[in-house]
Structure formats: structure tokens, C-alpha cells
Amino acid sequence: MKRLGILLSGRGSNFEAIADNVAAGILRAEIAIVISNRPEAPGLAAARRRSLPAICIPSKGLDRTIYDAMLSEELKKHAVDLVCLAGYMRLLSAGFIREFPGRVLNIHPSLLPSFPGLDAQHQALDHGVKVTGCTVHFVDEYLDSGPILVQAAVPVLDDDTVESLSARILKEEHRIYSEAIRMAIGGALRIEGRRVLSGA
Ligand code: GRF
User: Fold this and answer.
1) Residue with CA at minimum distance from ligand 1 atom 8
2) With bands split at pLDDT 50, 70 and 90, how would you rate the model's confidence at 200?
3) Whose CA is nearest to atom 4 of ligand 1?
4) Label partner for 173 (CA 20 to 30 A): which of 13, 80, 104, 164?
5) Model's pTM, two decimal places?
């Protein structure tokens, strides 16, 4: 069984959706460790409620290289095969990415490459797009970059607020993250340039 390491900073609803699918046997993987960089993250408490191995490594005031080395050590200690960023609000250093080549995933609430960075749903509303969505991608050293595994689109409605649009996107996030993890641990992916192709 492949071992997942989850990194989060906040609410943790994507982590919970993954954990639900693991618990239900829909996603054949094991959550080896949940790591939060913030002690107050609700996602950390949720992991503990589920009796999953969960720790906080506070990032406040720490240099990125030093912090990422601590992260990497912890993930390796738990023999993690795939690292899943689930609302992890820090950029990872190039050194960290090199330690886990092609083995770090992120989820972002827009159809990348549109609206990278913070407040993607707000950016989409401001821009006036009629369709937005979410993206699961491999992580490289840049922000919300890296080859795309799965995307899902949702409509933007005339009366949408950031909250209503975020909720519509989040429902799809919860669905596609597990789908992307299944693909990533399935071992049949090929990456050609920026394209992630399924099947040998
Ligand atoms: C999600 O919208 C995700 O796409 C983004 O941060 C948010 C995290 O939400 N990267 P949650 O902590 O998983 O509930």
C-alpha cells in the first residue's frame, strides 16, 4: 500500500475528503503522516480525531531551507511515497522538490494557469470569467506551476459571491484530489514536457 504524507496549514477539508476515501477503501493508500506548519490548524485537530499520525512543525520565523529539511526528514522517517499539499500555505524550496522528484501534488482552486496565487476564486470573479474550477498538479519550485494531472470546471453564476463560488469549486476539489492521487500512485503515468499522460 502506498504511503501518503499530507501537508496542511488550515481547515483541512481536502485532507478530510482524502481520509474519508482511504477509510472507505475507495482510495487504496495509507495516510502515513499529517504535518501542519501551524499549531492552530483545524486540519491538524481533525487528523488527531481520526487517530492518524499528526504533528505540527511550526514554521514561524524559520528559514525556508532549514524548515524544508525538517519536513523532508519527517516525511522520510514515515516512508512516504507521495506528498499531498492540502491547503499548505508555503512555497516549497527547490531542495525539497529534488528530494521527492515527481512525488509532490498540490490542489489549487482555479483552472491553472489562470489565477495562480492567493484568492483564486476572488480573482476569477474579478476577471469576469464564466467558467473556473480546480486543478491538481505536480509541484515544482514555482508557485502553482508544474504538470497538471486532473482539472474540473464549474460555472460562474451571475449572483455568485466568493463564498458561493468557493463552495462549488470545493466540492469538485474533494472529488478530483483522490482521483489524482489514485493516478499518481498507480504507476502508469508518463510525463512528456508539461503533459501528464496516462498509460505506457
Ligand atoms: C483549497 O481551496 C485548496 O484548493 C487551496 O487551499 C484551500 C484549502 O482548503 N490550496 P482546505 O484546507 O483543504 O479545506
Assistant:
1) 87
2) low
3) 108
4) 80
5) 0.97
